[in-house]
Amino acid sequence: KVELRNEELNLSITANKTILLKKEPISHEELSGKLRTLSEEKKAKSLYLRSDKNVPYGFVVKVMAAARRAGITRLGMVTEEEQEGVR
Questions:
Q1: Average pLDDT score, the chain
Q2: Of 40, 47, 60, 80, which sees the most CB atoms within 10 A?
């Protein structure tokens, strides 16, 4: 399990493609600018991305590209462990 520190940037994508940055909804168009501002404020170049398993891969790639444009140099994927018997 990955332990996330406060200075790390965390981004989630819900099943309905809502992007959450610091648990607040943000549009795809605002994402690069907001990530750039936050990464400069926090001196962070890492982002941890969590996505619902039903989000199309192409959408996740677009979000990842927005992070790269914002100057994020390290991107980690956070996954949830499957519980036995749950699929």
A1: 84
A2: 47
